[in-house]
Write a structure and sequence with these properties.
Elements: H1 11-23, H2 27-40, H3 45-60, H4 63-73
Helix pairs in contact: 2-3
């Protein structure tokens, strides 16, 4: 999957920006997103929607979710721990 395309002279700096952003994302949610993508190739639409609903429920029970909500409400940057 290609999300963005950069000129050669921008590639290193733009890639590092993306990597830094990803490094600060909630890893528990990333794991669940990857699971949804991996299963999407073999699932029917109904199966995929059910899986995604289950994964959203799972994500809502994580410490990272609570941290994300609290950080948003407190107008601060979240500090995710991957839990």
């Amino acid at each position: 999957m290609v999300a963005e395309v950069f000129a050669e002279e921008e590639f290193n700096s733009k890639s590092m920006e993306i990597l830094e952003k990803m490094a600060n994302m909630p890893t528990a949610a990333i794991k669940l997103t990857k699971k949804a993508f991996a299963n999407s190739y073999n699932n029917t639409l109904k199966e995929q929607l059910e899986l995604e609903a289950d994964l959203q429920q799972e994500a809502a029970g994580t410490e990272d979710f609570i941290e994300g909500v609290n950080a948003f409400l407190q107008k601060r940057k979240p500090e995710y721990k991957g839990k």
